[in-house]
Amino acid sequence: RSRRLDPMQAISAGLTRVGLKLAARAPAIKRVASPSAVRADRSVLSRTMRSNVVPQAVATEQAAAVKTGDAPRWALETHFGYDSVYSSSIDAELDAIEQKCKELKANFEGKMGESLLDAIKAYEEVDIALTKALSYVSLSCDTKLDDDKAQKRKASLFQRYSTISGNQLTFFSLELADMSQETLETQMENSPELAKYQAYIDDVRRSQPYNLSKEVERALTVRAPFAGKGKVVEFYGNELSRLRFKDGDEEVNMEVLLAKMTSSKDAATRYECMKALNTGLKEFERVAALSLNMVAGSWHAENTERGFKQLRSQRNLGNNVPDEVVDSLLDAVKTTGVDYCKRYYALKKGILKNTQGLEKMTWADRNAAINIGTSSEAYTWEEAVDIVKAGYEKFSPTMAGLFQEMVDEKRIDVPAQNGKRGGAYCSSSYGHGPFQLLNFTGTQRDVATLAHESGHGAHFMLSYKQGILQFHPPLTLAETASIFGEMIVFRDLLEKAPTDEDRLAMLMGKIDDIINSVVRQCGFDAFEEKVHSGRASGTLTPDEMTEAWQQTMVDYYGAEGEVFDSYADTSHLWTYVSHFHNVPFYVYSYAFADLVVGSLYGVYQKQPDGFEDKLLELLGAGGVKGFREALEPFGLDPADPVFWKDSIDAHLGSLMEEAEQLAAQLGLSDASHGV
Fold this sequence. Notes:
Number of helices: 27
Shape: globular
Oligomer: single chain
Number of strands: 8
Radius of gyration: 24 Å
Structural class: mainly alpha
Strand content: under 5%
């Protein structure tokens, strides 16, 4: 529990996620977030998909103007072999799994030091079986959020899973972690095949200093579905999905409102959307504050009881990243990254002034599209597939082939529909996956999201050979293929841009994404730090959380008047960021991943020969290699204190310079060119 979400929290929470590994203490499903949804807020979630912070609102019918055609659905029943979530074979399989778990406990509890290889193989078999059933149920129910009967069925199955796991499997990772080094070495010598599980063994044993007693760990696991923060967080997510906001005479969900705000060419319309959003969220503040107090209080108790030294140490351990590396990342973003952020929005302010007549820049204009040029504003599904495949093919025929497999085998649920999980994600579903959930409405961002999620899918397909316990890459590398895939598609489209106006619009959209992935995510992290630090001294009021949010905005975007003329109607935006509740201190991973991939792309531009083979080897390694070992062949070392500043300069700085030059050339910029 010190490093992994329990399954009810991780799978049923509905949060798209990157690299949350549930294997050791709780065999379960691994799912990767859409960085668009996660990039959290990539466009105020405009891109709902990729990254990290996808609002848990239910998607609605597509706008009539979008040319999506007959968008395909995923064929879960074909791939998993169940006829529905009510299939009796699911219950029969869980019965068999429970029996296997009892046998595993009877055969190996207290005896791990005698037959470790047999124990790991038996555990692996259980993990594979559980992943099949629970992946199917989780995926299927994500398109049935308005079906109370299906959601009840899912909750019942995961509740049963937690009971089985707590009672029968708690001993496994604890005994492996506690095993003496001498005993482990003897087992490795007697069973050479154990060497292929070395990464998994090391991963489990890293948690040893922070584990509690077997009895306490078992109780925590068994009680999770019934008590504690999990039920409050679940309630928060359900209530968030039910929120509706005023849009003229209509009431719409969050995704529809955000999509309207980011796509509108009219500043007044954008502001009205932001005002409606913030007004609606004010009514939600007590629910959000209750949940966040529970999460922060639980995090504080866990840190204290388990002996973690810093606020983020628990998360960093799960990511296998030293505290000092994360601190270095956050420091670089708060200095160099914030400088670029202010410089970028000053540039954008000038462009919007010259193209849309913007008089005053508010927060509602932050993700406004730069509508210049001739490129299409709407794409059919078939066009999106062709664009992504062409981009992948240009870089890696292997990845292009894997992408086409996902399309042909109906592994992608495409359309935005009522009752469907908002945003986008890619689920690994080991043994039967991968599967992508999208909410495709034909925008250019949707095309980028497809490229991103397909990168995750290709990554999984390449790494499945490592086995269920080791295929999932560490969080520090989990976004490598997804962001890289998105980047190569972006660069391919940029080269084909017919005019300088089109090129500038694309560059501005890309920089929007990077700022949201890097600066905004680290700003989220800073807000979490304020809330968690305050919670250690007692419960925080909604007003105190709002104050922390507003201060963070100033820290990362400047005071009112510096770039943004007004922060009006932004006070309660903290209430809809689901990651604060589901995965504390997770958001920095998006900045980490984006900057690492930006550096990788820089290496590719300078030395393209042989790069594909090295990247495919990295992806195929899954969780077998840590981030330093995996990146060494590329000459990159994120543990180097100067790495992050250099990466920001190379990744964000180069795009900024190109955008500034084009804007000046086109007579659209009022911004200074100095940092």
